[in-house]
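Question (not urgent): is this output format expected?
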Amino acid sequence: MFWKIVGGLLLAWLAFMVIGSVVGFLVQAVFWIAVIGGVAFLGAAAYGAIKGGGDKKQIRS
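Got this back:
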């Protein structure tokens, strides 16, 4: 009976370790994708602001 409890606890610990590492990896991956997307967005916005200059016509009311 003792070894069944120890085996169950060991199995539960192993499952939590595997699930924790997978969830941690996914959170880290999503974070870095968000960082890269933010940098790309800011770069595109800066490029558009510099390249756009004063070419656009304003609508006068």
